[in-house]
Amino acid sequence: MAGTFHALVPFAVAAVAIVLVLGLANMVRGGSPVLSQRLMRLRVILQLVAIVIILMTFLLARH
């Protein structure tokens, strides 16, 4: 089970990074504030998911 979470860590971190870059690109080009807000919310949710996956990896690896 820990192996499954371990395999998900890079995907979770990559998802956060992609949304972060999209948000920065939108901000730099002066894009829609509504889109910026949505991307920020999505990034926060993805960060939560990534943290949970990382914590589960550590917790399951201990047992």
TrEMBL record:
Coiled coil: none
Residue ranges annotated for the HIG1 domain, each copy included: 1-63
Parts of the chain that traverse the membrane: 6-28, 40-61
Keywords for this protein: Membrane, Transmembrane, Transmembrane helix
InterPro entries linked to this entry: Hypoxia_induced_domain
Record keyword Transport present: no
UniProt KW Transferase keyword: no
Short name of one Pfam family: HIG_1_N
Gene3D superfamilies: 6.10.140.1320
Name of the featured protein: Hypoxia induced protein conserved region
Organism of this sequence: Pseudoxanthobacter soli DSM 19599
